[in-house]
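### Sample
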Amino acid sequence: MLPVKPNCGYNVCCCAVWLAGFRVAGFRHWGGAGSVGLWARFKNTTLYKSIYRNEYPDTPRNQVLVILNSVVLHLHPVKVPRRAVRMSYTWGLGGLSLLMFLMLTVTGVWLMFYYVPSVPGAYESMKALETDVIFGPFARNLHRWAAHGMVIAVWLHMTRVFYTGSYKPPREFNWVIGVALFLITVLLSFTGYLLPWDQLAYWAIQVGSNMAKVTPVIGTYVQRALLDGYDIGPATLVRWYTLHVILLPLACIALMAVHFWRIRKDGGISTPIPYDEDEVEGAVEAGLAADDL
């Protein structure tokens, strides 16, 4: 029996619900004893199921299939240790580092609209950003403090990985990737230091380049590579600007993709060996439910 078309006039939502009734799998009748029955039948329509997620899978096999068939959920492992999802002092440091990087990306793109990477224009553009651009001081300060926060978060994250033995097999390759990410994070912070082109930036880079110069054997070559010469000048500013906004961010994004992929393949983050022998790996939802209890 086909559904009776309601007298809805030009009510688009009502007509859409009526049209969806034709596509219900196993549809028999539309009538119902109230809005509850109508809503229950609407949830069984193809229209509703195409927009909202279906019922929660009730078997381990179906739960695994939901994760593997979703692009977003596939980023997470199917099962993780219950200890990995418990709140602790070091919980979420990797995610916090990623959040800081995203904040740096957004604020950095905003600053690029007003920054002039030249000796005459660098300092003047920073002064104009502070006085003439709406939310300019806020964007610059947020960029600066997010950079400091990212360095601290990455360092604390690596400290947690080291003291919990998470660098051991099979995660030794991901530990190397993490060390490379920490070095790139420090270089991102260091290269951004020169861009305001003020006295603090100039002499900080002068001290840093002189420290690199005393490196045995390759010290002079390292200094010339950093400064594009023997002294800080216009070429140095352009080189550091290119490193700061193009090369180092691209390298960081590529290594982060590999880092997250290896975490996914290694079964999630590593935690210390539990003292309880009956503590085994379980689904993420099970661990969260245990924490709630």
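The two ends are 49 Å apart (CA to CA). This sample (Cytochrome B6) is used throughout the tutorial notebook.
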